[in-house]
């Protein structure tokens, strides 16, 4: 039948929707955005890298689409196994249904968390 991005039986989509995964990714994205805003040179380099990655990804997906279509039955079998494994993980590790800040606060109370404000500000214009 072919899976789509909205298919609830898509293992990768389900993993990406787990609260722990979604919130951890959002934390990384926020940190990355903060660095780009704070350090203009890194922001410029990061922006250029993003454009390159988007272009490469687009070409790779266009080239890989026929292969994915050919391998669709095997991909669906692998997806079915992944869904079974995911069900087990969700059952055995309820922590997956918590957001990252809750998990990091509860399970790492003795950890020192650094923020970008803790890092020394560099003057990159003198390099």
| Helix-and-strand structural type | mainly alpha
Radius of gyration, in Å, reads 20 Å
Helix % is: 55-70%
N-to-C order of helices and strands: HHHHH
Total beta strand runs: 0
Strand content: under 5%
Descriptive notes:
- It is found in: Lipid droplet.
- InterPro entries: Perilipin.
- With 127 residues, the protein is an all-alpha fold.
- The chain has one domain.
- It is 69% helix and 0% strand.
- Mean pLDDT is 82; it is low at 1-6.
Which secondary structure elements does this structure contain, and how are they paired or packed?
Layout: H1 11-17, H2 19-38, H3 40-70, H4 72-92, H5 100-107
Protein name: Perilipin 6
Main location: other
Keywords: Lipid droplet
Gist?
This protein has 127 residues and is mainly alpha-helical. The protein is 69% helix and 0% strand.
Descriptive keywords:
127 residues; mainly alpha; 69% helix; 0% strand; disordered N terminus; Perilipin
């Amino acid at each position: 039948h072919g899976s789509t991005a909205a298919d609830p039986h898509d293992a990768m989509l389900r993993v990406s929707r787990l609260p722990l995964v979604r919130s951890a990714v959002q934390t990384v994205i926020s940190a990355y955005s903060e660095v780009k805003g704070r350090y203009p040179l890194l922001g410029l380099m990061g922006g250029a890298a993003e454009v390159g990655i988007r272009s490469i990804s687009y070409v790779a997906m266009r080239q890989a689409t026929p292969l994915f279509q050919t391998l669709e039955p095997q991909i669906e079998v692998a997806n079915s196994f992944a869904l079974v494994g995911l069900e087990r993980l969700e059952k055995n590790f309820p922590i997956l249904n918590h957001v990252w800040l809750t998990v990091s606060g509860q399970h790492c109370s003795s950890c020192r968390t650094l923020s970008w404000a803790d890092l020394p500000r560099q003057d990159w214009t003198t390099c």
